[in-house]
Here is the input.
Amino acid sequence: MKKYNVAVIGAGAVGVEMLRVLKQRRFPVGELKVFARSSRDMDVDGDIYPVEAVSAEGFRGIDIALFAGTEGEKGAAVTYAPEAVKRGAVVIDNGADFRMDPRVPLVVPEVNAADIKKHKGIIANPNCSTIQMVVALNPLHKKYRIKRIIVTTLQAASGAGKAAVEQMNNETARISQGGFGSVRAEGITRFMAQQLAYNCFPHIGSFADDGYTNEEWKLVKETHKIMHAPKMKISATTVRVAVRTGHSESVYIETEKAIDPERSRQILAKSAGVVVMDDPKNNLYPMPKDAEGRDEVFVGRIRQDPFNKKGLWLWIVADNLRKGAATNAVQIAECLISSLK
Here is the structure.
């Protein structure tokens, strides 16, 4: 089996998960390099990875470069992705820098794997919330043609990185020691816009056009691009919740023709990357705690809108660090090397 030299750029939560996923999925790695701002050793599940300070020359000989990225607007890929491409690597970028570039494919393998072939050195990994939504909705779109999506996301702290999780944990500890008032006292370093422990707030990213945040616009624009459906009407509200890992979404769709809930369950149960958990009478529905560490997208609470035969509600949950980031990136790499055979 041919092996490929791989670089992982970023030693945060997503970078760690990329290393984990590469090993678990037995990706055919030849030489593996890990880059970050500074050099050090990193322990991932007992495996020690030497981390090098990122540099343009470090990409020489690399076949595939996985940029970890975050929910932030700009990342290392702006500077180093072109340098990696110059030296022969294909870049798969988890950040936001190239997603809407018309020259760069934006890929979820279960939905639009064929777009990988259009790459010119860079392939973009979509936003975590977009990934899980399109994996669940695309099979229904093929059957019923979705015209409208209304989605509210409930996004875990880990989507904003290690510092956000630490803030939530520190706030929780402070509250347990001295009540809600004490969490507002000095001594808590706040990474997010608001207190997260015992709280939720509808503010992810920065506020942009028409009162929506850029995180909400990502769901709109990325879905249009991935599903090749630029006229699909999409409206989103993104909410940060006091969950460590695992994003949840309440999604309403309207379709061109009447949509049947039972038939929808059957379609989703047969779809790649989807697990249907839908028996609410027995308390069976997807939850973040059950999705953590898993690569599938979990769907439940599938029900027809009582006032619209063309309307369907779904509850969608996935691990934002894995399918929402690292696993999707590695799956892109798997599709990439398959196309080279």
Observations:
- The first helix runs from residue 13 to 24.
- The radius of gyration is 20 Å.
- The CA atoms of residues 137 and 293 lie 22 Å apart.
